[in-house]
Design brief:
Helix content is 37%, strand content 15%. The protein is built from 24 helices and 19 strands. Residues 1-13 and 596-601 have low confidence and may be disordered. Strand 18, helix 24 and strand 19 form a beta-alpha-beta unit. It is globular, with a radius of gyration of 25 Å. Helix 17 packs across helix 18. It is of the alpha/beta class. Strands 3-2-4-5-7-6 form a six-stranded parallel beta sheet, sandwiched between helices. It catalyses: 2 pyruvate + H(+) = (2S)-2-acetolactate + CO2.
Length: 601
């Protein structure tokens, strides 16, 4: 070994009289304290048990005992998405760690900053198929920003500090720290702050000036510009800067599913949500645009439809902090890598300079878009089976709760209706699983959001299918005084799958009936189930009872509330762009599309 090589080998920190000696497990807890962590969600087991012992005595970190590790992961997500702080989940090795995988993948797709700390078997047993052993670092490598395997106690503070740095900077995302049991048990001097060395990790935050100028010129020259706003605006905490740029340019704006609330729904420049279930004006604005300014958005297939036919006449300015996203799906004419909060300010200044402080005349474009808004407003058809319209229920939840509430949705029809019919006026009010589409997200995410923002009303808007995947976390909420409100939109089926079966599979509803709603055996009975979990439970089957039930939920804060809203199974999500076609073929109701002349190549 050369002298240079020897110098590069990490060595334990020098021990001084004032340096405390801690076990690796104590170092985990002390590191969380020093990083400002106040809440963690977890479930103990053999390989993480050493950490749980000092955690019991720690007065700074509140540990919330979940009933399933997936719940811990989604709760950490909800905590992070509602507050902007890093969420933390703890789990043991093997199945405890693998139960976190769904939530980790979900956080990765939606750029949610969480740190998952897992116990691992003794380092001497790794690779022997030891009891509750799983290569969680290998398993999660494709779905984390980074995964650490820690085998030495002295490396624990640095790994945890680095995990928080990586999770919360650049494009946010999940980081895993897997710590062997012998590393948790060993004693070493605890030195803080640790020396963090992250070779190659240098997120670009300041955009190139020439690219900013080029983008500003394109906006000034455009006749049909659209600001295409993605969830990156919320993660960058750049809503105010976005509003300034939008009002400076006068351009119409759309917010994706992940960006709901990034720009006020009430603002006259807001056309709504684009994509498969977006508003007709938002969908066709992108399709007809001559310039798309993509801000923290990734040209997801649910937004573009068939990518080759998306916005055929538009030039593209693409702004993202992650260079891997730019030109991944749609080639950018002006690529800009940087932090949106800074880029939006620079772009605003540059646009004012090139335009002489006067917004370009795009009145003809606005006339076309306003015509679409008048002709194709968002609405729904009243069910003919005598049951409640789910859209009405969700709309009333939003209206009676107001914009200061937090709304966490599951995945499916109720998710789309919650995105459409609740009006969002502020960022971090809308939480959902956008990229992964994870059923079971809602209840634990709402729980995490309520822990992070205890003064806010937090709703979990869930489907009867999603609710049955993670409803055990109601026990966590009841025991830990986390009074969330749960609205089960109970259509007795896997609603979105059923809708597709109705539209594309000749109405053959293969294995989508759940027998939870009207006219069924009601297994389970959600009211009895919720009461068993210590919740206030209400069933609503008539429209005239909707408001009173919501009001009761809003007035009840000593326990969780679950409302079983029994709705029609025939209700569908409209508008809709069928998968695999141009967005030009958006349907605002079944078999009804706007008159729009475009040839599909």
């Amino acid at each position: 070994m050369s002298a240079d090589t020897a110098a590069a080998v990490p060595r334990p920190p020098a021990r001084t009289a004032s340096t405390p000696v801690l076990t690796g497990a104590e170092a985990v807890v002390r590191s969380l304290d020093l990083l400002g962590v106040t809440d963690v969600f977890g479930l103990p087991g053999g390989a993480i048990m050493p950490v749980y012992d000092p955690l019991m005595d720690d007065e700074s970190v509140r540990h919330i005992l979940v009933r399933h590790e997936q719940g811990a992961g989604h709760a950490a997500e909800g905590y992070a998405a509602a507050s902007g702080r890093v969420g933390v989940a703890l789990a043991t090795s093997g199945p405890g760690a693998t139960n976190l995988v769904t939530a980790i993948a979900d956080a990765y797709m939606d750029s949610v900053p969480i740190v998952c700390i897992t116990g691992q078997v003794f380092s001497t047993l790794m690779g022997t198929d030891a009891f509750q052993e799983a290569d969680i670092v290998g398993i999660t490598m494709p779905i984390t920003k980074h995964s650490f395997l820690v085998k030495r106690a002295e490396d624990i503070p640095g790994a945890i500090a680095a995990a928080f740095e990586i999770a919360s900077t650049g494009r946010p995302g999940p980081v895993l720290v897997d710590i062997t049991k012998d590393a948790q048990q060993a004693e070493v001097p605890f030195v803080w702050p640790p020396n963090i060395d992250l070779p190659g990790y240098r997120p670009v935050t300041k955009a190139h000036g020439k690219q900013i100028q080029a983008a500003a010129q394109l906006i000034a020259d455009a006749k049909k510009p659209v600001l295409y706003v993605g969830g990156g605006v919320i993660r960058a905490r750049a809503s105010e800067e976005l509003r300034s740029l939008a009002e400076t340019t006068g351009a119409p704006l759309v917010t994706t599913l992940m960006a709901r609330g990034a720009f006020p729904d009430s603002h006259p420049q807001h056309l709504g949500m684009p994509g498969m279930h977006g508003t007709v004006p938002a969908v066709l604005a992108l399709q007809e645009a001559d310039l798309i300014v993509a801000l923290g958005a990734r040209f997801d297939d649910r937004v573009t439809g068939k990518a080759a036919l998306f916005a055929p006449h538009a030039k593209v300015v693409h702004v993202d902090i992650d260079p891997a996203e730019i030109s991944k799906i749609r080639t950018a004419d002006v690529p800009i890598v940087g932090d949106l909060k800074d880029v939006l300010v620079d772009l605003d200044v540059a646009f004012r300079a090139v335009s002489g402080g006067t917004a370009p005349d795009i009145s003809e474009w606005w006339s076309f878009l306003d015509g679409l808004r008048d002709e194709f407003p968002l609405g729904y058809t009243q069910p003919t089976d005598g049951l409640m319209a789910p859209q009405y229920v969700i709309q009333r939840i939003g209206e009676l709760t107001g914009p200061e509430g937090v709304y966490a949705a599951g995945v499916g029809q109720h998710q789309m209706w919650a995105a459409q019919f609740i009006k969002y006026e502020r960022p971090n009010a809308w939480l959902n699983s956008g990229g992964a589409g994870t059923m079971g997200y809602s209840v634990p995410a709402a729980m995490g959001a309520k822990v992070a923002e205890p003064e806010r009303v937090v709703w979990a808007i869930d489907g009867d299918g999603c609710f049955q995947m993670t409803n055990q976390e109601l026990a966590t909420c009841a025991i830990n005084n986390i009074p969330i409100k749960v609205a089960i939109i109970n259509n007795s089926s896997l609603g979105m799958v059923r809708q597709w079966q109705t539209l594309f599979y000749d109405g053959r509803h293969s294995h989508t009936d759940l027998n939870t709603g009207h006219g069924t055996v009601r297994i389970p009975d959600f009211v009895k189930l919720a009461e068993a979990y210590g919740c206030l439970a209400i069933r609503v089957e008539r429209e005239e009872d909707v408001d009173a039930a919501i009001q009761t939920a809003l007035e009840t804060n000593d326990r969780p509330v679950v409302i079983d809203f029994v709705v029609s199974a025939d209700a569908m999500v409209w508008p809709m762009v069928p998968q695999g076609v141009s967005n030009s073929f958006v349907q605002y109701a079944r078999d009804h599309s706007p008159a729009f002349d475009e040839q599909e190549d």
